[in-house]
Amino acid sequence: MNMPAATRWPVLALLLLAGSGAGAAEDILKPEEAFRYEVSADGGALNVRWTIAPAHYLYRERMGYASKTAGVELGDTVLPAGKPYDDEFFGPMEIYRGAVTARIPLVSVPAGTTQVDLEIRSQGCADIGLCYPPQKWLASVALPATTAAAGSSLSRLMGQDTPAGTDGPMAPADAFQPAVEVLDPFRIAVTWNIADGYYLYRDSLTVGGDGSAQPGPPAIPPGTPKWDEHFGDVEVFYDSVRLEVPLARATPDAGVLNLRLGFQGCKEDSICYPPGATVVRVELPPAVATTALRDGAAPPMAEQDRLSQLIVEGNLTLVLVTFLGLGLLLAFTPCVLPMIPILSGIIAGEGAACTTRRAFLLSLTYVLGMAFTYTIAGAGFAAAGAQVQAALMKPWIIVSVAALFVALSLSMFGLYELQMPAFIQNRLTQASNQQRRGSFFGTAVMGALSALVVTTCVAPPLVASLTVIGQSGDIMRGALSLFAMSIGMGLPLLVIGTSAGRLIPKAGAWMNKVKGAFGFMMLGLAVWMLERLLPGAMTLALWGLLVFTAGVFLGAFTTLMPEAGTTQKLGKAFGLVAALYGVAMLAGALGGANDPLQPLRFAGSPMGGGSSEAHLEFQRIKSVTDLEQALARADAANQPVMVDFYADWCVSCKEMERYTFTDGNVHEALDGALLLQADVTANDKLDQELLQYFGIFGPPTIVFYDGDGAERQAFRVVGYMPAEEFASHAREAISSPG
Fold first, then answer.
1. Would you list the domain boundaries of the chain?
2. What is the pLDDT of residues 192-219, one digit of tens each?
């Protein structure tokens, strides 16, 4: 007999105890004796009072109630907080001892209904180590005559039958009235109008829906603090509250959204309503960016927004050419340059067999592997709403990729040869074709890894493509843009790879030196990957060790014979310089430095000029609630705000920290602004909610707010920006009118 573990163990315990003797059996209560219940009904709810025997307890999470009477609808069960308990099988739980009452609101009761059949589910344990199997009982409870006559206990509770002119509670639809406004194709605003003397709980406001769009997490402003008898310290809204809700479009065409708005509120010093919901039909316009002019001039628009508009509205040929050119520019950024030694190492590893034609085909395979991976994975991740960077920057993935580069480098040094296992090679048709297929397959895999792992910069072209895919639903245009951008990034790789094949001689011992050089490049890539995880001083030590070892290989400590040629002498000279530089980095690491370009610059040391670089002072935030509270304080002080999204695995974030945020002009431009920083390294639930709140895909992204608390969306910064340009940008974002 198969039975879940959580059920099997309690049953086994019962059987063992039952057979252990009459004396033990006398101490064991039956479940109906250990957990007694009484069911009653009042004007608006069913009440289940539990009486729990001594040395026994009930699981809060294992309680459940369901109506077995046709037409009777029950609301969410109201229970007091239980005692925290770490259960061996179920993990963290809450339990009840002694007595507890569950209140189940009656949401709908057909007219004439005199009783309700209630299904009761529970599970509990005894302190002696016995756990009972889940129990299920059926109880019938008679309804009060007023409830049966009214036909709906909720209607009577809400005051829908209150005579005119009395001061009874209003119906929830009258006390809390929502109004929905479409701000643009990707945003709506929900305004709750609250009657005098009533209030809404902030935590109860939810937004869901279905149709041609999917609502995102709403931006809810801070509420008024209030002490609640049942919920403790809460925030509530009086008069009105406005929520802004982002939308993820399933299609760029006009459509309908059935918006489900959840809420719960109370009448001051009177009744509290059960949780409720209302559905509002919203007509959505086509997802086409507006081109209207304001004050005779085009409104400012961030670079990624202009590119998003181009993808949606522009001629498809123009879109592809534009993103091809942007990809070509990205090919020369620090995040893409590491692809060059990877591809060059693959071609150099081919040796004398690498003709120009074969070098071109290998390069093309590498680039296509990169392009198709970007296109497919980018579209898939964006459509699913995941964070591509963070998903691929988990520590175990970074360490695994770094280990792969180390393994490839050791192969370049000749310690072993990487090849397919013999039993796999024997299954292929011909040995000559087998290796060729394997080479092309391996090259495509390396291209895919390069696209997903090495290229970690979130640049505006990539953000624009992902935004269109994720919001407008036009996957074809977004995916084609990604493909064109990837091909543009790969054009220099095609040229370099093909040229390397043409320049490689048919044979020569010099090949080992070339492979050794590429081996050091692979080790450099491993250090570059680990830089996201390791402390700065440790990373500097690894760079120092690598450069020093390279100097040794160049002949820094090799004795030159009098007849040594120019090449050997230059090699020794470069080797000595590399060795000295490596020693400087190792010394700097021991002194706490972390900058490979200035390894001997120590904070407060004579070498460092007695001072260290001044960094911006950020206030860390973790959640949407932290953000809203900080914005509320800034709004009250009429203070502009800058929000910086940072992650340890983000290379461009560290470039911003090192080169941009240390600049004096940047400090001056941001003087007087509240500086917030969200560290999304962990990519946990709170981090993802914060990213979704802004509708962004990852760091580095910088958001500005004016003194009135309104975001300056046209001034968002995505990716690295040099200090001089950023200072001018920040000055305009903070000082210019919204």
1. 29-156, 172-284, 306-535, 619-735
2. 999 988 999 998 999 988 777 778 778 8
Given pLDDT bands bounded at 50, 70 and 90, which one contains residue 292?
Answer: very low
* Residue of 227, 86, 200, 107 lying closest to 158 (CA atoms): 107
CATH number at 29-156: 2.60.40.1250
Distance, in Å, from the CA atom of 382 to the CA atom of 697, rounded to the nearest integer, reads 8
CA angle 578, 584, 589 (to 5 degrees): 125
Cα separation, 188 vs 242, whole angstroms = 10
Mind listing the pLDDT tens digit for each residue in 518-534?
678 778 878 877 877 78
318 to 124, 466, 484, 543: CA distances (angstroms): 67, 18, 11, 44
Q: Which residues contact 292 (CB under 8 A, 6 or more apart)?
A: none
Instruction: Name the amino acid, one letter, at 736.
Output: S
Tens digits of per-residue pLDDT, 593-638?
A: 877 878 887 544 444 443 445 678 899 999 888 898 888 888 888 8
Q: What is the DSSP string of 7-24?
A: HHHHHHHHHHHHTS-HHH
Bridge partners (DSSP) listed for residue 41: 46
Q: Three-state SS string across 593-609, please? A: CCCCCCCCCCCCCCCCC
224 closest CA partner among 232, 236, 242: 236
pTM of the model: 0.43
Q: Which residue has the higher pLDDT, 405 or 291?
A: 405
Q: How far apart are CA 503 and CA 500, in angstroms?
A: 5
The pair phi, psi for residue 19, each rounded to 5°, is -95, 10
The two most distant CA atoms of the chain are separated, in Å, by: 116
Dihedral sign, CA of 539, 543, 546, 548? negative
Cβ–Cβ under 8 Å, residues 130 and 17:
yes
CB 238 within 8 A of CB 197: no
Establish whether the linkage from the previous residue to 217 is cis, with ω within 30° of 0.
Answer: no
DSSP letter assigned to residue 169 = P
What is the per-residue pLDDT for 263? 92
Confidence band for 432, pLDDT divided at 50, 70 and 90: very low
Q: How many whole angstroms separate alpha carbon 451 and alpha carbon 375?
A: 10
User: What number of helices (H) and strands (E) belong to the chain?
Assistant: 24, 27
Share of the chain above pLDDT 70, in %: 69
Which CATH class, in words, describes the domain spanning 172-284? mainly beta
**3-class secondary structure, 222:** coil
CATH topology of domain 619-735: Glutaredoxin (3.40.30)
- φ and ψ of 608, to 5 deg: -90, 10
Residue 136: pLDDT above 70?
Answer: yes
Token duo for residue 374:
């970007």
Q: How many CB atoms lie within 10 A of CB 557?
A: 11
Q: What are phi and psi of 346, to 5 degrees?
A: -65, -45
Residue 267, helix vs strand vs coil: strand
